[in-house]
Amino acid sequence: MKNKQVADIFNKVAALLEIKGENPYRVRAYQRAAQVIEALTTDVEELAKQGRLSKLPGIGADLAQKIKEILRTGTLSLYEELKKEVPPHLLTFLEIPGLGPKKVKAIYEKLGITSIEELEEACKKHKIAKLPGFGWKTEQNILKGIKLFREKTGRKPLGEILPLAEEVVRILTETSPVEQIAIAGSLRRRKETVKDIDILITSTRPHDVMKRIVELEFVEEVIAFGETKTSVRLRPGIQMDVRVVEPDSWGAALAYFTGSKAHNIRVRELALEKGLKINEYGVFKGDKKIAGKTEEEVYEAVGLPFIPPELREDRGEIEAGLKGELPKLVEYDEIKGDGHVHSKYSDGTASLEEIMQKAEALGLSWVAVCDHSQSLKVAGGVPIKDLFEKKRRIEELNKRSKRVKLIFGSEVDILSDGSLDYPDDVLKEIEFVIAAIHTGFQQSEEQITNRILSALRHPFVHAIAHPTGRVIGERDAYELNLTKIFEEAKKYGKALEINAYYKRLDLNDINARAAKERGIPLIIGTDTHFIDQLEYIGFGVAVARRAWCEAKDILNTLNYEEFKAWLEKVRNQS
Question: What is the spatial distance between Cα 296 and Cα 283, in angstroms, rounded to a whole number?
Fold first, then answer.
């Protein structure tokens, strides 16, 4: 949680500096530092204690001291000073997707708008479109941003909240008298966004457990305290409910509080058909409890096999269970490679050697290093001469490494006219080409669809990265005809990515399942820019599991030689 606190303050400092018109390099330094801290999977406070802050990319002595100040005081004096110089509502405006500091400043200075409601009204009356440098399209994007802002204020990304819930479980397991403990709710189902945290425990000393909960350092408010249920608000503004249940009701309670509501209703209907009653305490025939200690016996009582939590959305899992046709979902430990990682050759912060070391620590056997192509200057796109230097370096490292191999890849931009960002004589030398759209998001559905179709038809393209372009809570998917894209991907045997970065998760579970059902191969890529983001691979696996994917549907379950063979097969059949 300290990582997020530091990153949030640095992001706000950057925004406030930009509103004030400060040096853009200073602004970028705070933004970069925020990205580095947010991406850490290690505790920034531990790094501070070990004196290792200055070893982080982009963190010099000055920023290291500021991090220590935040850890010590909970805020930053520079941030508090800047807040006094800028109207407070402008910070709220900055949370609206698509509204950057310059536009926020112009709206305030030209129209004196001080609330989101006023901003929305000004857009509807087309006052914003008349401002210099704005226009009708900007106005419409602001309205979309306001809608996204309102949606995201009630829910938070899985990748932000799951680590927090897991930390709570770890602390309670190590420091309180719990016997059984589990995360429930939408977190257990691995939904891409969640509105709260549900934790179930069994304990013979529930008061002591609940007392430990309210003492957690990231609890900012105790909503209710009791021996069977305690509710608190945690520092990122999310409610956590902890319930104590009896051991012989553990399975029933876990099933009930995992949900979803629609899934639970279907299970309850099956119970009624058998003359049974089912609730969070167990399964009953009359007054006699016949099941409840484990989830397996709860499902068995109503005639179902155990249904994995990720499938419990009433999307056909009940019918499949009754027919014995539930998929054998891909397991986290079946993943052998990462299909999309950036290195120092573009805008990543890790060297090829560091990527190999981290991959080995995670138990991976291959990583596709897919740096940005040449035209994407803002992301350090790789010029052709450097591209082949990278190829030579990968070949050298692969000769020396037995456990982890690197794939020479590139995330190649699909340009506005549908052409690719490297010429064919360069593309044919790249082992793995994953094509992507990074510009022209406002083009029509037909234009964007045709750009991706053109890439899928290209003989040297293997896959499409983050196909819909959405960023959760920040940017809607661009207009796109996915049906046509699925048809073309299937026709040419090309893969579509499940981008595992928790703000993307693109393809999402619904679209990934549609692709899987058409026989389109899927590849999970973390889109790593900071080395610890390699650990995000699990978020992509969660999407795949929610999409009913089995190991055979996911290219990451192939070993190095098998994946290389697939790459060759795609080239040969194109």
Answer: 12
